[in-house]
Amino acid sequence: MPPDPGPDHRRRAVGSASDEAPGGSGRSGAEPSPDHQHWFEPVADHLREAYLRYSFTKGTVQEVDHLVGALGLRAGERVLDVGCGPGRHAHELARRGFAVHGIDVSQPFVDLAQRDAPPGATFERLDARRLPFREDFDAVVCLCQGAFGLMTADGEDEVVLAGMARALRPGGRLALSAFNAYFAVKYHEAATFDADAGVSHERTEVRDPAGAAREVDLWTGCYTPRELRLLLRAHGLVADRISGVEPGRYGDDPPSTEHPEHLVLARRLGPGDAPPPVVGAEVR
To answer: Which of 78, 59, 63, 156 is nearest to 121 (CA)?
Structure first.
């Protein structure tokens, strides 16, 4: 049986409480604040540390084990964690000797990340659509739909990807997870899938640390491997591998209809590097 694709399987984007088209900048059923920049923020405000109760957050060590080897990370390198949430990946990377800077649009999540952060981990509230960094990092990670995949307005996932590419030094590496469009169509019966927009929508319930429930609409951008390669190529990145994964089980399986997520391992091209043709599963 495939893994449960329900709302506790990953962090997801939030649309409006009505059935607004996913291209709009809708809001959740949670009460917005004037300083909110993104529709996920009311949900994060409600969840706070209860976010870490969800099953998909329990595989952090395995995920980082895989990423350190797959990206060839070396102690002391600088890593940017985009959409870091409460900082679980950033904390684990810092414990292993990397200098990690985590950014998230949710101030409560940033506050949680800063609490008990290990040496080498820093955090700030920042919208992933407005990354200011220029060739400052050896690696960028964007996992569990923390930013890429949350941007349901037309083109905003690409804005996030462009900012991550700019943040990388030439030759720098990227690890990016994206929800699998094939899996969404095949298995996600509790959701509706907009085939034109590539967005999955469901209405579900989230609970705060005290157990109080709130009903929200969730939107997730979904992708095929080919779409991801083309997006990467447009921003000077080349995919070294795209694997089929699920939270807590990162590995090198090829993409399929049976894995809920794709894990992209890519690198920024340097001066004079020509992008390879977009053919086959990997760079040849």
So the answer is: 78
